[in-house]
Write a structure and sequence with these properties.
By secondary structure, this protein is mainly α. α1 runs antiparallel to α2 and α1 runs parallel beside α3. It is flat and about 75 Å long. This is Syntaxin-8. InterPro entries: T_SNARE_dom. Keywords: Coiled coil.
């Protein structure tokens, strides 16, 4: 767990260095030194994550920790791995991604696979409907879904009853 905390600290430091590098780039200052530091810190983080994986595997296989604790720690390692991949992607983007996202919000186009969620086409069923009409349509859809769920519930309860009857018949036959 202390190794996990150390890895989290390294991840936090990398994120801060990437932020600092991006700030330098926006101001036109040189960020070469920071790039070297970030690259070595990312490598250090990767090594710590690999070490955590090995230690966790060893602890679970030798039953030093319970399976539940092993799962919890595996989730922590997975979160760290995800964070490391995000940091790696952020490092490789070199600060250009937020500008691309910001510009795509105001334009109608698609840039680097980022779509503007506000420019979705309205469906044929809802085109021209007011708020009250949309609300009524949503209520009708919800009522239909509720009716379907009620039917499903009755089917499942009937299957439960049949299963209990089969179980009782088996007990009686045995």
């Amino acid at each position: 767990l202390s190794l996990h905390d150390a890895a989290c600290q390294v991840a936090q430091e990398v994120a801060e260095k990437i932020q600092e590098r991006n700030r330098y780039q926006r101001n036109g200052e040189s960020s070469a030194k920071l790039n070297v530091i970030i690259r070595s810190s990312l490598q250090n983080l990767r090594e710590k994550i690999d070490q955590l994986k090995d230690l966790l595997l060893r602890a679970v296989s030798t039953h030093q920790i319970t399976q539940l604790e092993g799962d919890r720690r595996q989730n922590l390692v997975d979160d760290l791995l995800t964070r490391q991949k995000q940091l790696q992607a952020s490092y490789k983007n070199e600060g250009t991604e937020p500008d691309v996202i910001r510009s795509s919000l105001m334009t109608g186009g698609v840039k680097r696979g980022v779509t503007n969620p506000w420019l979705l086409e309205e469906s044929e069923e809802t085109r021209g409907l007011g708020f009250d009409d949309l609300r009524q349509q949503q209520r009708r859809i919800i009522e239909e879904q509720d009716a379907g769920l009620d039917a499903l519930s009755s089917i499942i309860s009937r299957q439960k009853q049949m299963g209990q009857e089969i179980g009782n018949e088996l007990d009686e036959q045995n």
